[in-house]
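User: Second chain of the day. Same drill as before.
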Amino acid sequence: DTIASVNASASAVGSVGYSSIAMSDDGTRLYLAYRQPLMGASQNQQIFPFLQLAGHVATFSRPSSTTGGSASSTDWSYTCPLELINPFGSQTAQFDQICDPITGNLLTGDDFGSIIRTTVNLHTGNRVVAIRSNFGLRLSDGAFVALYEETSDGNYVISGLVFLMDGTTTFTIAEKIVFGRDFAVGNDALLSAVRTPAHGCGVTTPRQALFFYLRNDTSLQWEYQQTLTPPATASNEDFGVSIVMSPEGTQAIVGSPHLPS
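Assistant: Same format as last time:
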């Protein structure tokens, strides 16, 4: 009943289909991804059919329970949408269709909100929501994770964008667009997987690694710290297929279902 009520509210903001859902640890915030047409029914839509859907995330809230019991569905209220504003406009959409190196399919739309993770900033006590997108502000940026922090007045401010970088490596576009296919956040830490199997979409050299980032307390910028690779010499295309991080950002569990014995 609670979700049905929230779904009805999300329909009111123009939803055309969900792709992800997440809830804060305290159960008072709900984040629902929805997708809307990026361009109208015009010539542009025929030129750029692979970018027809843009992702958004609707935020909902309810009061904290004072009794310890479950809140009713009527306690949920729509708060605001989260979306990444592209200052370059639609001009950055003028590129060829991009092949997904994992599935071999063409990527359709920015898919903002395809993965949503939540945590808490232990310095401020504010809730944090991290949202993944297929494309950055420009195609050359690849995928990214955008982090938003809820302020004391209930609004959300963007607290960082994390792209695939380590300061030395020149990554391929295939590696960049799979960044964040799974990731985990905890306090000021982010751990993201990059998995590119050696087949399809022009990928000849596979990469299986996790990239670790920390938020600098002084500059408040997200900075690369370390690359983690599978603890085996054999090829393991599923390293990082799932990641969980402790709330403090000090420990992580990494899925590796085909790790050799």
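The longest strand covers residues 29-37.

User: Great, on to the next one.
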